[in-house]
């Protein structure tokens, strides 16, 4: 007993020491590595809004001595108020009890059963091999066996975020470390609900989570590492910061939230700190992060929990009224207002002053800062900031607003990419699953930037999914023949729609468009193998594949069928050589 306690204490010390840089190999960092790339919770204790204002003011030339507004206050006073308030803001409203909405899960719920249940998957052994959109591994291993822990990149109310490096692939990721002692039963259930929600989400502008670990004292969530910085900090480098630039950003964010709402997910804590660029490239994409306040909703039942951040929280939440997903649209309206003028529409010297302004819902477009802004921009903001949610525009409607459509350039469809889509054939489920893993976890951000742009060009309604009609429209533009376009889509749609949802989601699109010669290199295939082969013995076992697929058990019949095309020596496992052969000899996958 004493020996076990000693080992546990030593393990805990190892993790804490690595986090604080006192021992072990710490990941070496390039000097230009962003330090604020927390893909879950940002450090709310730091003066984030002050930095946002500085970024916008620097870019847009908003002076700290802006003329006095009609209510007797200046833009400088507004910015000062924003700065003061943010030093104490958290993701929950500060003067309201913070109990989490009670979950209906039984006591002792574990992350595997909870996550799979919330993903509407069967709890029993799978009778088929269903390809997961998001492969969130539920790992039973020690976190230190898989990752080298680097520096702290964020601190939040529920834990610490560190940069980590996968030991065998050398891929950098973000790790959220959540002390169990801070979580009561409902908190822990909420954590698993967040994990379940992120398993369901498959959108190019929403952060991806890859793994969940836990031990006696901590939960660890491993996600993609966004290096491009926060939205408001980045725009100071954009010159000039025009409405076209702002519309491009809003289009991506609106698409992400529209996707969430269509899938009955409400974020509930949208703010600039929760919108990051995935890389430092000038054409990088935005990512919505931190789904800790998110929840599933039912259109027949309103939400009641009072949660949000001052400046961005919707009035219906503050006035104790039941609310719906339109609270997210309000938050985005506030963000758009700040993007275009540099200060929030509702402000005050204290939290209570801010809340009172939001409760009244009255705001103005002051001539000093809005005279040069278009009427379309002001019209969209006004529709997003309608006081009554019933009158408020939806995220999908906002995406189709003239201000978005007239300002955002749509990438022309690429002949080669469209040809790959039409040639795709999903003949081997295991091979497709591995390509999905590679597309989401092995390819770097730069490899996917152009594919994201092409996906957005096809996704004309901005819901984050491609319907048959949208694909037919795309091929009609390319072929100039609607009948031929329809035949092309009908021939390939079922292969593209890997999970049978009736839509082609982003990961499915990625898999179909991967360029074999660029993606299926030996180095990248070996990285994918190492991500699955968690014990590093050079063999992929049934258990390791189950973990990769999110913990859903496979029966022996399904496992044997998966092995049929790759287990050459028939030892019931997949070696690296067999794994390479499975992918490098995949000509039929692309109809080559």
UniProtKB/TrEMBL annotation:
ATP binds at residue 181. This is Calcium-dependent protein kinase 1. Residues 8-20, 30-48 have a biased composition (Basic and acidic residues). Residues 147-404 form the Protein kinase domain. The lineage of its organism: Eukaryota, Sar, Alveolata, Ciliophora, Intramacronucleata. SMART domains: EFh, S_TKc. Residues 1-125 are annotated as: Disordered. GO terms for molecular function: ATP binding; calcium ion binding; protein serine/threonine kinase activity. It comes from Tetrahymena thermophila (strain SB210). CDD domains: EFh, STKc_CAMK. PANTHER family: SERINE/THREONINE-PROTEIN KINASE.
């Amino acid at each position: 007993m004493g020996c076990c306690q000693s080992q546990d204490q030593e393990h805990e010390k190892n993790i804490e020491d690595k986090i604080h840089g006192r021992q072990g190999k710490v990941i070496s960092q390039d000097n230009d590595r962003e330090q604020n790339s927390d893909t879950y919770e940002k450090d709310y204790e730091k003066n984030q809004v002050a930095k946002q204002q500085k970024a916008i003011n620097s870019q847009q030339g908003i002076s700290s001595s802006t003329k006095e507004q009609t209510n007797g206050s200046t833009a400088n006073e507004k910015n000062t108020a924003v700065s003061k308030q943010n030093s104490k803001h958290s993701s929950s409203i500060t003067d309201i009890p913070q109990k989490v909405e009670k979950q209906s899960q039984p006591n002792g719920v574990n992350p595997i059963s909870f996550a799979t249940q919330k993903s509407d998957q069967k709890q029993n052994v799978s009778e088929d091999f269903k390809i997961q959109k998001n492969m969130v591994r539920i790992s039973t291993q020690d976190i230190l066996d898989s990752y080298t822990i680097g520096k702290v990149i964020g601190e939040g109310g529920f834990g610490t975020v560190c940069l980590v490096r996968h030991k065998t692939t050398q891929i950098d990721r973000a790790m959220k470390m959540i002390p169990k002692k801070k979580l009561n039963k409902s908190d822990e259930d909420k954590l698993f609900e967040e994990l379940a929600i992120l398993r369901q989400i498959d959108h190019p502008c929403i952060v991806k989570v890859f793994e969940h670990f836990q031990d006696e004292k901590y939960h660890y969530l491993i996600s993609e590492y966004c290096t491009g910085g926060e939205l408001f900090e980045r725009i100071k480098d954009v010159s000039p910061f025009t409405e076209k630039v702002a519309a491009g950003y809003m289009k991506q964010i609106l698409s992400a939230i529209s996707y969430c709402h269509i899938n009955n997910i409400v974020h509930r804590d949208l703010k600039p700190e929760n919108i990051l660029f995935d890389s430092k490239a000038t054409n990088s994409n935005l990512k919505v992060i931190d789904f800790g306040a998110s929840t599933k909703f039912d259109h027949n039942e309103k939400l009641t929990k009072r949660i949000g951040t001052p400046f961005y929280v919707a009035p219906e939440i503050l006035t104790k009224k039941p609310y719906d997903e339109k609270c997210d649209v309000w938050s985005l309206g506030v963000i758009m207002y700040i993007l275009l003028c540099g200060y929030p529409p509702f402000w005050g010297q204290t939290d209570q002053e801010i809340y009172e302004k939001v409760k009244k819902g009255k705001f103005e477009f002051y001539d000093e800062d809005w005279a040069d802004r278009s009427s379309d921009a002001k019209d969209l903001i006004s529709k997003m900031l309608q006081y009554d949610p019933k009158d408020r525009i939806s995220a999908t409607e906002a995406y189709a607003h003239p201000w978005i459509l007239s300002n955002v350039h749509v990438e022309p469809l690429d002949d080669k990419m469209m040809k790959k889509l039409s040639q795709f054939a999903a003949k081997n489920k295991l091979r497709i699953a591995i390509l999905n893993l590679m597309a989401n976890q092995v390819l770097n951000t730069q490899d996917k930037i152009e594919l994201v742009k092409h996906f957005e060009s096809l996704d004309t309604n901005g819901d984050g999914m491609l319907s048959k009609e949208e694909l037919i429209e795309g091929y009609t533009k390319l072929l100039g023949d609607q009948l031929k376009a329809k035949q092309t889509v009908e021939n390939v749609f079922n292969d593209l729609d890997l999970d049978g949802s009736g839509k082609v989601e982003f990961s499915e699109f990625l898999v179909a468009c991967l360029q074999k010669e660029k993606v299926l290199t030996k180095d990248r295939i070996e990285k994918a193998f190492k991500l699955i082969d968690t014990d590093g013995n050079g063999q992929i076992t049934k258990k390791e594949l189950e973990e990769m697929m999110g913990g859903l058990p496979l029966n022996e019949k399904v496992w044997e069928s998966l092995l049929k095309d790759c287990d050459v020596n028939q030892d019931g496992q997949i070696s690296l050589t067999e794994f390479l052969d499975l992918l490098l000899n995949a000509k039929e996958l692309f109809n080559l």
